[in-house]
Amino acid sequence: MELVIIRHGQSEADVLGVHEGRADFPLTELGEHQAKLLTNYVATHFPPNVILTSPLMRAKSTASILKEGIGCELIVEDDLMELNNGVLAGLSREEAAIKYPLPQNGRPVHLPIEDGESELELRFRAERVFHTIIYDYKEYERVAIISHGGLISHLLKAFLRQPNSSDFAYATGDTGIHLLEIKESVRVIRFLNRQEHLN
């Protein structure tokens, strides 16, 4: 089984410089173009049998463009949403720094922002959706997953069986692709954050 894990294209929040998280911003024109370039690349090199996507607009739109180019089934999976960043959603970074300043040593992983979820809760959600995918979709040769930077980082930690206390983070650019393989009991990273389709 191969997992093609993909971050959505550029969203309006990226341009506005606001905290996104669960704020539901659409793709920009550039984001839609990135998704079309992504689709051509994925269709040529590793077309999926099924696409799973976060329901947030920026991910679902990216997934819909990919679906049009591939012609496979598209399934919305709520657990693929980005971190619930509570009161920060949609706030400018400047306003958020004033209203909700981070503690000097950062927020402990078990403490959520007000009305949101903690990093630890995000990790557990990523573990749950990762194991759901590899169990419920094991009959598929290749599954595409369209999600968000924070959730993708935790999916990679789940794949690598890193501990919950791990300080590692995995960056993913706009429409960045991670190709992972599970073959019997062996887990192989084919590549991380590939964006050559944007060149």
**Reading side by side through the largest sheet, how are the strands ordered?**
3-2-4-1-5-6
What is the global morphology?
A: globular
Coarse structural class? alpha/beta
The SSE order reads EHHEHEHHEHEE
Task: Please give the alpha-carbon distance between the first and last residues.
Answer: 28 Å
Helix content: 25-40%
CATH class: Alpha Beta
Tell me the radius of gyration: 16 Å
Total domain units: 1
Largest sheet, if any? 6 strands, mixed
> How large is the share of residues in beta strands?
15-25%
Q: The CATH topology, please?
A: Rossmann fold
Name given to the CATH homologous superfamily: Phosphoglycerate mutase-like
Please give the number of β-strands: 6
- Low-pLDDT runs of 5+ residues are none
Architecture per CATH nomenclature, i.e. the level-2 architecture: 3-Layer(aba) Sandwich
Number of helices, counting only DSSP H or I runs of 4 residues or more: 6
Rounded mean pLDDT is 96
Describe the protein's topology.
Elements: E1 2-7, H1 12-16, H2 29-45, E2 50-53, H3 57-70, E3 73-76, H4 93-99, H5 119-136, E4 142-147, H6 149-159, E5 177-183, E6 186-194
Helix pairs in contact: 2-3, 5-6
What can you see in these coordinates?
This protein has a six-stranded mixed beta sheet with strand order 3-2-4-1-5-6. The protein is α/β, with parallel strands linked by helices and 199 residues long. The chain has helices at residues 12-16, 29-45, 57-70, 93-99, 119-136, 149-159; strands at residues 2-7, 50-53, 73-76, 142-147, 177-183, 186-194. Helix content is 36%, strand content 18%. It has one domain: Phosphoglycerate mutase-like (Rossmann fold, 3-Layer(aba) Sandwich), CATH 3.40.50. The longest helix has 18 residues, at 119-136.
